[in-house]
Specification:
- The complex is a heterodimer of chains A (about 160) and B (about 1000).
- With about 160 residues, chain A is of the alpha+beta class.
- With about 1000 residues, chain B is mostly helical.
- Chain B is built from 51 helices and no strands.
- Classes of the chains: A alpha+beta (about 160), B mainly alpha (about 1000).
- At the A-B interface, helix 2, helix 3 and helix 6 of A face helix 51 of B.
């Protein structure tokens, strides 16, 4: 495609996007409390843009709803993501984007755990460790270049 | 005479030596008036024109040029000739004089008296004696204007110059950089190529000098006073480049080169230019470049990430195919169309049968683009692709793959202009008819909503091709559709099936009437099984049948058949057989309403059918249901059902021809006023009914049917006994205690008043009504005040719509009532009724007198009263004013909202802290669109606005929370410097709704907070 840098995975498989969540009558009822559920967390992260392709993480099957678990009572969220190829150098960046998106979108009572689906990446442990380390995540977001890339992943695509 | 010449000398003197620029205008006026001639002016200028001081000469020429610009039209040929020679000489003069000389020449070229030969000589001197690109912007523009003027008036003479003209132009525009001048230059170049000037050996030069700007990248400076947009430049350059086939050998390589670039806009621009070449180019121009073009285009479709590039590439491809299909081929040449089609088929066909179907979509799009370009291309593509797809479909077993193939197939069978066969030829699809049908029928009987929907669309497409579906295929298709209606409960499938039924039934009415209607009828009248496992599903089947029936109405006979079934269903419901629920009856009514809306009522037969059969049957059933004993209550006596019957009558009445309408009006009036039931079918009704005077709501609510039948008639129809009718309606409207009854009566009254011609009769009626209503409203102990208010509101609306002078008095009355303790809230709510469109009466569909912009007018007349009332009202009454204001504002067009905002902003801010939820809500919904592009008045108030919005994000009402979050989100789009100071505060405040108990609120909070996080940080 472009003459400069070659993409690592130039022609990925594209998956169908799930539609918007269907509205139910209870959603509109002011008196019923809706708990935060898996689908809601998935809706938060499925539209994150891939750093390489003009596609969302959902379309690349990097995130799936079955790999999202949430426990509203115990304030825990866990997200597994699957890099498109085992040597994907963007894995950390994708993980960081997911983490930042959740940090910005969830109440601060939640503990957020983002890690790679076991067995899908060559340097799985190292990436998981980086993502779990609060200090390193905070430090990464101080870096304006890194923040720029993360923000690009998080801007909503309206065009 | 002597005074004139001394006056002229004076003017010249003042202009040349006195440096007074205004004297030019005076001189021009003098020449125009005939006070002095141009010759005299030249004589008077004599000394200054021959002065040795070039400044003086410049002033002299300037005066002459300015005068000529005003009065070039009053020159004669001789004068023009002399002046041209003079100016041509002056071109060799000092550089300070040149600008004025060019202005003068420009004025002369506009003159119609330009002698033959001067055009050529002017051009020759301009090209010879000036170096255009070293002139200033203004003067260059002057040269271009000279060229444009001459090309307009002296085309033949310029063509005589041969290619020298082109060469001169190329030299003068070479290196032009000003966008205004470029627009002129492109216009000239476009004229040159389109009007057939001889380009000679300068074709390539002309191409080079224009194509060097391609693709144009131009961003106008901010506050550009000239208003040139990139698009103007792009289009005018494109018109030059695609203007002639002579450029083909240079342009196509350039396009291919730009397609290889990385810049998306360049690609799109190149592709659009290529598409524009289509109509001009032919076989000869295109054939040398076909393989190169195809390679680039294919790459753009297969590998692109951008839909814009893809669609531009596809339309370029189809333009090329169309060009090749059209052009005449030399007897010894190959057909380039086949060369292109061979290339396309070779590269795309095999993707359709690859096991993973990965590139099937781009390939299909390319093939469809090519096939849609011409009949010949269509023939070739379809006969190559269809067998392949059909075979693939039968071979595949996975449903996802079959669905994809079916969707691709749908694209291929979609009727296009190109697929219409030429006279005497057979349709492309004819040979595949049987196998296509087999595929469609197998897909229709498969499970899977998406597959079925696609199959119905293919069926619709096939039916449009003449002769593809054999009669037996049609029957089978109708059977399949019937089965789907009866068995499939997915709403999307049902909608698609109905769509298909709607488009097939006009083409094959016989099949529908013999095979589908009986089955649907049977299922409508089958009693739902009482002990059945799912009575709901039985009801759903009935409703699907009913709504499908509404689609089988394409033809007079089918329409009558379907409507009779529906009317029979209503009768059955009335008598109580078949256990129809209220919902069933309502859906039957909705189907009838759909039929009434879509039927060709202008057709005399159908109009008469509606008038003679449907309306009387409906009225008859409703009256019978109303007057029968309370014992077995018929569903037709329900208010909800009547509300569904009314629109049927109203729609059919509004579309009747004038004489039918008059009869219909007379019948309804005599039914309701005198109880005349003779026109109702099967009537066993008591002869003297008192429908309007009945105290029981079950009978009196029938007035809504009266509203439907008399208020929707064309304005030209005169309603008999209108005064008596109005009187009766006023009585019901003011005194009846049943809400639906008195509201319907009020609507009817207003609908009639709105159409009544103005005059003493109308004034008398209005006066009586207003008097009665006011008396009722002023008596605070009366129990009929709410009735009076409803009537007042509707009458006000009816008069407001037609700009009746009385409406001002009435709306003042309403403003006054805003302060009323018991009615204030209802009045405030009533403003929404005044300002919004009502669905059943007083709209344009009912032929009401609705003036344009009545809302703006109402607002302009009343906003100051509202603000005053608000300021002087005691605190507990302010809410009413705010509510009324928000109703009025909400219905105004955005443009008006924007201009009125500054004055009303304090009220808005006040409304945001008002305790009433509905005031908050409507203020927020009014603010939100304004915040998308806020006027300065609002941006100055952010400090006040922001805390109020943030406070509402934790309001107890969900809708308020959502709306306020919307507004906060909208604010993030303001320029950074305005909102950055609030960032921390907003982020902190929005953390709270992230944990809201409602998911919808959390969703909005997440979006809004996400945007605010991005504010001012890199990578946004």
């Amino acid at each position: 495609m472009s003459g400069g840098t070659r993409l690592e995975n130039a022609n990925p498989l594209i998956f169908q996007r799930s539609g918007e969540r269907l509205l139910t009558a209870t959603d509109e009822d002011d008196d019923v409390a809706d708990p935060i559920d898996d689908r809601e967390i998935f809706d938060l992260i499925r539209n994150i843009n891939d750093p390489e392709h003009p596609l969302s993480l959902e379309e690349l099957n990097v995130v799936e709803q079955v790999r999202v678990t949430v426990n509203d009572q115990e304030n825990a969220v866990s997200v597994e993501f699957t890099p498109t190829i085992p040597h994907c150098s963007m894995a950390t960046l994708i993980g960081l984007s997911i983490k930042v998106k959740l940090l910005r979108s969830l109440p601060d009572r939640f503990k957020i755990d983002v890690h790679i689906t076991p067995g899908t990446h060559a340097s799985e442990e190292a990436v998981n460790k980086q993502l779990a380390d609060k200090e390193r995540v905070a430090a990464a977001l101080e870096n304006s270049q890194l923040l720029e890339v993360v923000n690009q992943c998080l801007t909503s695509r309206t065009m | 005479m002597a005074t004139d010449s001394s006056l002229l000398l004076g003017l010249v003197e003042e202009f040349v030596s006195g440096q007074q620029d205004t004297k030019a205008a005076d001189t021009a006026k003098g020449v125009k008036n005939g006070q002095f001639t141009v010759l005299q002016l030249v004589e008077a200028l004599g000394l200054s024109l021959t002065s040795s001081q070039h400044d003086t000469r410049a002033r002299g020429v300037k005066l002459l040029s300015e005068v000529l610009q005003e009065c070039y039209s009053c020159l004669n040929e001789r004068e023009v000739e002399v002046l041209v020679v003079f100016y041509e000489n002056r071109l060799k003069d000092h550089y300070v004089i040149i600008p004025h000389v060019l202005q003068g020449l420009k004025a002369l070229t506009k003159s119609s008296a330009l002698p033959p030969g001067s055009a050529v000589s002017i051009l020759k001197s301009v090209f010879q004696d000036t170096h255009v690109q070293s002139l200033m912007i203004q003067e260059r523009s002057c040269v271009y204007s000279i060229l444009i003027n001459l090309m307009e008036s002296r085309e033949q003479e310029l063509k005589g110059l041969g290619s020298d003209f082109v060469f001169g132009f190329v030299q003068s525009m070479d290196g032009e950089r000003d966008p205004r001048n470029l627009l002129l230059a492109f216009q000239i170049a476009r004229n040159i190529v389109v009007h057939g000037y001889n380009l000679g050996k300068f074709t390539e030069e002309l191409f080079e000098v224009t194509s060097c700007y391609f693709p144009i990248d131009f961003t106008p400076p901010p506050n550009d006073p000239h208003g040139i947009k990139q698009e103007d430049l792009v289009l005018s350059l494109r018109a030059v480049l695609t203007g002639t086939p002579l450029f083909a050998e240079f342009l196509i390589p350039l396009i291919i080169e730009k397609l290889d670039s990385d810049v998306k806009s360049a690609k799109v621009e190149a592709l659009q230019t290529l598409a524009d070449c289509g109509p001009v180019y032919g076989h000869k121009e295109l054939s040398p470049f076909l393989s190169g073009l195809w390679a680039s285009l294919r790459r753009e479709v297969f590998q692109t990430a951008s839909e814009r590039v893809e669609s531009a590439a596809l339309s370029a491809l189809s333009a090329l195919t169309a060009a090749l299909s059209r052009s005449v081929i030399a007897s010894n040449a190959d057909d380039a169309l086949h060369t292109l089609l061979d290339l396309v088929l070779k590269d795309c066909q095999h993707h359709l049968s690859e096991p993973d179907l990965r590139l099937v979509w781009p390939s299909a799009k390319i093939l469809q683009a090519v096939g849609g370009a011409s009949y010949r291309a269509c023939l070739r593509v379809e006969s190559a692709v269809l067998p392949l797809l059909l075979e693939q479909y039968t071979r595949r077993t996975q449903s996802a793959q079959r669905r994809t193939l079916l969707e691709v197939l749908q694209g291929f069978v979609q009727p296009t202009e190109a697929s219409i066969p030429a006279e005497g030829e057979e349709c492309v699809f004819l040979q595949f008819g049987a196998s296509l049908c087999a595929v469609v029928f197998s897909a229709l009987s498969e499970s899977g909503a998406a597959t079925q929907i696609t199959a119905t669309r293919i069926l619709t497409a096939l039916a449009q091709h003449k002769g593809v579906l054999s009669p037996s295929d049609v029957e089978l298709a109708v059977d399949h559709l019937t089965t789907l209606i009866l068995q499939e409960d997915d709403p999307h499938v049902s909608a698609a099936v109905e769509e298909c039924v709607g488009s097939l039934s006009p083409l094959h009415p016989a099949a529908f009437s013999s095979r589908m209607l009986p089955k649907l009828k049977e299922h409508i009248f089958t009693e739902p099984m009482v002990q059945g496992d799912a009575p709901d599903s039985q009801n759903a089947v009935r409703q699907r049948c009913v709504s499908a029936l509404a689609r089988v109405t394409s033809e007079s006979s089918l329409l009558q058949e379907s409507t009779h079934i529906l009317l029979a269903a209503l009768s059955a419901a009335h008598t109580g057989s078949g256990s129809f629920s209220v919902d069933d009856v309502i859906s039957v009514c909705q189907s009838l309403q759909r039929i009434a809306e879509h039927a060709p009522l202008t057709d005399a037969d159908i109009g008469r059918f509606f008038h003679d059969v449907i309306t009387p049957r409906l009225l008859g059933l409703a009256v019978q249901a109303a007057v029968q004993d309370e014992g077995g209550r018929s569903p037709l006596a329900e208010e909800a059902v009547l509300a569904a019957v009314a629109p049927i009558i109203s729609t059919s009445c509004s579309r009747l021809s004038t004489d039918c309408a008059a009869v219909s009006a007379a019948r309804s009036v005599s039914l309701f006023l005198d109880g005349d039931v003779t026109f109702l079918p099967d009537n066993n009704l008591p002869p003297s009914l008192q429908l309007l005077k009945a105290p029981s709501p079950q009978v009196s609510q029938l007035v809504c049917l009266l509203t439907a039948s008399v208020c929707s008639l064309p304005r030209s129809v005169e309603i008999p006994e209108i005064d008596r009718l109005l009187e009766a309606l006023e009585e019901v409207g003011c005194t009846h205690t049943h809400t639906f009854t008195h509201t319907s009566a009020a609507k009817c009254y207003a609908g009639l008043i709105n159409k009544r011609p103005s005059g003493p009769a109308l004034d008398a009626v209005l006066q009586r009504c207003v008097k009665r209503v006011s008396a009722e409203l002023d008596n605070s102990t009366s129990c009929l005040r709410i009735q009076a208010l409803t009537l007042l509101l509707w009458v006000t609306k009816g008069l407001l719509l037609r700009y009746h002078p009385l409406s001002t008095t009435l709306s003042d009355k309403l403003f006054q009532l805003l302060g009323d303790r018991s009615l204030g809230a209802v009045v405030a709510e009533g403003f929404s009724l005044l300002m919004s469109d009502s669905l059943d009466v007083l709209n344009r569909g009912c032929h009401s007198d609705v003036r344009i912009m009545y809302r703006q007018r109402f607002f302009a007349e009343n906003n100051s009263k509202l603000v005053q009332g608000f300021n002087s009202a005691p605190p507990e009454e302010k809410a009413g004013y705010l509510k009324a204001l928000s109703h009025i504002m909400n219905n105004l067009p955005r443009q008006v909202q924007l201009t009125e905002l500054p004055a009303l902003l304090p009220l808005f801010l006040e409304a945001l802290v008002c305790v009433e939820v509905c005031v908050q809500l409507s203020t927020l919904s009014c603010l939100q669109p304004i915040l998308m592009d806020p006027p300065p008045a609002l941006t100055n108030q952010l400090e006040a606005l922001m805390p109020r919005l943030l406070a509402l994000t934790t309001s107890p009402a969900m809708k308020v929370r959502i709306a306020s979050l919307h507004c906060v989100h909208a604010l993030s789009r303001l320029p950074d410097h305005m909102v950055l100071p609030f960032r921390t505060r907003v982020l902190k405040a929005l953390a709270v709704p992230l944990d809201d108990k409602k998911r919808l609120v959390r969703k909005e909070a997440v979006t809004a907070r996400g945007e605010w996080f991005l504010l001012g940080s890199p990578g946004r």
